[in-house]
Amino acid sequence: MSTGRLAVLARTTDPRTMLRRFLAADAAVTGANGLAYLLASAPLGRFLGVDPGLLVGLGAFLSVYAAGVALLAARERPPAPPVRAVIEANLAWAVLSLVALVLWLTPSTAGAVWTLLQAVTVAGFAAVQHLALRAARDRTDAD
Question: The organism sits in which domain of life (predicted)?
Fold first, then answer.
C-alpha cells in the first residue's frame, strides 16, 4: 500500500498524524471489543459459542491493551519501539486467533466468522501501523 492510499485512509498526508490515527482507531475498536466482552460475556458467549469466562479474561486484557495503545496514540510523536510492540502484538493476536479457531475453540458459526473477521481486522491494523511508522521514520530521516 502506498503512502497515498494510507493518506486517504487516515485523511491526512502527515505520516505522524497517520500513525497516531491508526493507533487511535486500533485503541477504539479494541477497547469497544474488550468492554463488550466484559459487560456482555454471557449473551455474547452464547451467541459466539465461547465460554463466557474466556470472554471476561479477553475483555480485561483487551481493555488494558486498548488503554496502552490510546496513550501511545495521544503522544505527539509515538516512539518507534512501543509502536513496533503494538504491531507485533497485533500480528500475534491475528495468528493466535486463527490457531485457536483451528486447534482449540469450537465456536458457533457466528463465533467462527467473528474470530476470522477480528483476526483480519487486527492484521489490517498491524499493516497500516507498520506502513505509517515506516513513512514517519522516512520523513524524520528526510528532515
Answer: Bacteria
